[in-house]
Amino acid sequence: MRDEKRSIRQQQIETAAYAVLETKGYGGTSMAGIAKQARASNETLYNWYGDKQGLFRALVTRNAAEVKAHLVEELDTDHDALSILASLGPKLLNLLTGDRAVALNRAAAADHSGELGATLSQSGREAVFPLLEKVLERARDDGQLHFAETADAVGLYLDLLIGDLQIRRVIGRQPSPSEEFCQTRAQRAVHHLETLLGTPPP
């Protein structure tokens, strides 16, 4: 199968996986059910993804791809760290509070095996967090921010950017944020981070 045709087919299968996930939950979702929804063969799904966990790992990885690519690209420039965070913020908000992220998180919360939650952590947070650490370390090296523990600084940035938005989206108490909202919140998070960590300790 040609690469372009395969890419289109994968998008159709992954769209079908989200549709089944939303109606059946992770525990009730099967490769056969996804294949039926996508009008694909079971053999195709198993050849491409291995198993159900492999398919959902691909969904999470694709969801995080734009954020990872942005961070890798920016870290290869001489852009200052705070400007990188400002441009990253809206993408990170979309990643964590978008409709597909909400569907995955709702399913993970209902998955008693913990399998989907582990996949979300490994292919999402654990893949992006080390890149965020490098951005914060650049800010410290350039004297923009002052902190002892990099992981704590990254956690503070994420708290300022995300807060309780993700959980409110998951429980249906927060509408999907607009582009303007994401831009404003990203700028505010960087401003507060600089206020809190911009002054050297005495």
TrEMBL record:
Gene3D superfamilies from the UniProt entry: Homeodomain-like (1.10.10.60), Tetracycline Repressor, domain 2 (1.10.357.10)
Molecular function as annotated in GO: DNA-binding transcription factor activity; transcription cis-regulatory region binding
DNA-binding region of this protein: 30-49
Keyword hit for DNA-binding: yes
Keyword DNA-binding listed: yes
Keyword tags: DNA-binding
Domain HTH tetR-type: 7-67
Superkingdom in the source lineage: Bacteria
Protein name per the record: Transcriptional regulator, TetR family
The species this protein was found in: Shimia aestuarii
